[in-house]
Specification:
about 240 residues, about 20% strand, alpha/beta
Length: about 240
């Protein structure tokens, strides 16, 4: 198992240096994907990478394409560099990077599985986000005919890159905030098992969230609807998976 970290970044110039400082001691190669950030954020990323070029690399996207687009570019770069697995974390500091060794251990034990963060929220978590993900989780349980996925929206994950590459080579996966849900359900349909890892989530270093309540909830709702119809034609396959 050869693992890297992928961090999509869009205008988190205040938070990303703190996140990278925490990651440094882990000694894991890290790909930072600059998703069309401002000149200020871009310069800060360049400065960080120049100081830590032995373990950091930077991908610059010319335009903001969304979280999913940035992560997918990170996947392509990771595969090209020979990595077998990739840890995805967010750039705002909400994820507990000290739990990364736990994810790696789970990945070692289950190398073909998707290792998912199961968030343990503190008082800083916006109530709208907590309630919203409860609805999202319900739809994911429907669209997988399974309760195996404890949380569908946590951006702290360990992906088996071979499975992700197979999926993205055959399917147009969502590129925005609906990415985390879309790729998760489609990987499950593909036969990828899921391991859930409880992990603390905090909101965030810089107070910046790019989640737009109405726009992104609409995108997520459309994604759930598309997945629902995809689930209908897979009912025999999904029920057979449970019986096996």
């Amino acid at each position: 198992m050869k693992t890297c970290i992928i961090i999509p970044v869009y205008n988190h110039e205040a938070a990303i240096p703190h996140v990278l400082a925490k990651l440094k001691n882990l000694g894991i190669p890290t790909i930072v994907v600059n998703d069309g950030s401002s000149a200020l954020c871009t310069q800060i990323l360049v400065d960080c990478i120049e100081r830590e070029a032995d373990w950091l690399s930077l991908i610059n996207r010319s335009e903001n394409g969304g979280k999913g687009a940035a992560v997918l570019d990170g996947f392509k770069a990771a595969v090209a560099l020979g990595f077998s697995h990739a840890i995805q974390i967010d750039a705002d500091g909400q994820h507990e990077v000290n739990d990364i060794p736990v994810f790696l251990e789970a990945g070692t034990q289950h190398p073909d599985a998707l290792i998912l963060g199961q968030p343990l929220f503190d008082a800083t978590a916006p109530k709208s986000r907590v309630y919203g993900r409860t609805i999202a989780n319900l739809w994911v349980w429907i669209n997988t005919l399974s309760f195996e996925i404890a949380d569908s929206m946590c951006g702290f994950r360990l992906y088996p890159l071979a499975a992700a590459a197979t999926l993205t080579g055959e399917t147009d996966v969502a590129k925005g905030m609906d990415f985390d849900i879309d790729i998760l359900v489609r990987l499950y349909w593909q036969g990828v098992d899921v391991v859930n890892i409880p992990t603390c989530v905090n909101y965030p270093y810089d107070g910046v969230s790019h989640f737009k309540l109405w726009r992104d909830n609409l995108m997520i709702s459309i994604a759930h609807a598309k997945l629902f119809f995809g689930m209908l034609i897979r009912i025999p396959q999904l029920l057979g998976r449970h019986r096996s």
